[in-house]
Amino acid sequence: MDSSHDKLEVGAALSGIRVVEQGTFITGPCAGLMLADLGADVIKVESKEGDPYRSYQEGNYSPHFQAYNRNKRSLTLDMKAAPERVIFEGLIREADVFIQNFRPGTAARLGAGPDQLLAINPRLVYCSISGFGSSGPYVERPSYDSVAQALSGFLSVVVDTSRPRFLGPALADAITGIYAANGILAALIQRGHTGRGCLVEVSMLEAMAHFAIEPFAAFFALGVTPTSSDRPKLAQAYILRTQDQRLIAIHLSSIEKFWEGLVAALEAPDLATDPRFCARLKRIANYEALNDALAQRFGQRPLAEWVQRLGRNDVPFAPVNSIDEVVHDPQVVHLGLMVPVESPQGATHAVRPPVQFSGVRARSVRAAPLLDEHGPKIRADLAAGAAWPEAGVPDLRAS
After folding, report:
1. Is residue 67 part of a domain?
2. What does the alpha-carbon distance between residue 145 and residue 90 come to, in Å, rounded to a whole number?
3. Which end of the chain is more exposed for a tag (fewer CB within 10 A), N or C?
4. Nearest-CA neighbor of 264 among 191, 216, 313, 302?
5. HSE, side-chain direction, 13 A CA sphere, residue 301
6. pTM tops 0.85
C-alpha cells in the first residue's frame, strides 16, 4: 500500500496541524481525538502517573482510555521541573493548538494558562474546557458528566421522571469535547485570516444547553416547559417488545405514509379508522393509548417477521441492537465501520471516524499510547535540534 494512500486512510484533512493536549478523563481527550482522527499530530502530555482514565477499571490501559486516546502520542512531563518545562515550552512554541480541561486556575498554576502560552506562541489556538465556565458562582464546583446533564436541563427532557435513570454513555463529556474541537477548527480558520491565535473556551454547561437547543426553542416560543415525553409524542416514536422478547424502534415522524405503512404491516385497518388515531394530532394526543395498542400487536410476532413486514411497507424502523449485534449488522459491515487497531495492546478493533473525504475513509486506527510510549523518541528529537518531533516513530509495544 503506497504511503500517499496510507496518509489518506488515517486522515489527511488536518495533516501538518500540531496539537499539544494536556487532557484527562474525557472532555479534553475527546477534543484531541476529534483532531487526531482528522490527521492532526496530537502529543498527549501526561503527568508521571498518567491520565487517571488509564486506570479507570484496572491496570494502566483501560478500554475507556483507549477509546478517547487513539491516534495520539504520549509524553510524560513533570511540569514543576525546569528541564521538563523547557521541553513543554518548546512544544508549545511550535504547536498550532493546545487543549486542557483542568479546573479553572489549575493550568495557570502549572505555568500553562492562556496568557502564559499565548505569550510564548501568539499563533497558538488555546482551548480551555471547564465544567461551568471560567467565572461565576459555580466556578469552584467540581463537574462531571452527570452533573452537566442535570444542570443544563438535558436530563429533564430525556429521563422518565417516574423511574429516573442516567443514560449509559458519558454524553456531556463527549459532546463537550466535540464542541471544543468545532471551536478549535473555527479558530484555526480565523488564524488563517489574521495570523494570530486566540483563546477558545467551552464549558460542559454551555455545550449541553446548546445540545438541547430544540427544547429551549420550544420553551421560548410556546412558554411551556418541555418534558421527556414531548419528543417521542411529536416524533411518533415507539419502542416495542416482540413475541421473542426483542425490542424494536419505529419512528413515524409527520409523514402520513409512514403511518399508513405501519397499518399495512400490522394488517390492522381498525387502527386507521379508530377516532383516537385517525389523524397525526390525535395520535399525539393519545400517544399512550396508541403505544398500548401497538405493544399488543407487536407482541404477537417475532422480531424477524416484523423486520420483513416493516421493511416491505417502508416504515422507518430498527431492531434495538446490542453492541455485539451492531458489529455484525450488514449495513455496518458494508460501511466498514469497525476497523482494526494497529499494534493493539488492548482492543483489536474500533469504530472508525465517521467522516469521509472524497470517498476515502479510515481503514484502521493507531492504538492509544502506553504511558510515555513516545517520550524517549520525542526527547531525543528535541535534543537533536528538531523544532517538532517527527511523528513517524517505531512501535515500542513489542519491546
Report:
1. yes
2. 33
3. C
4. 313
5. 15
6. yes
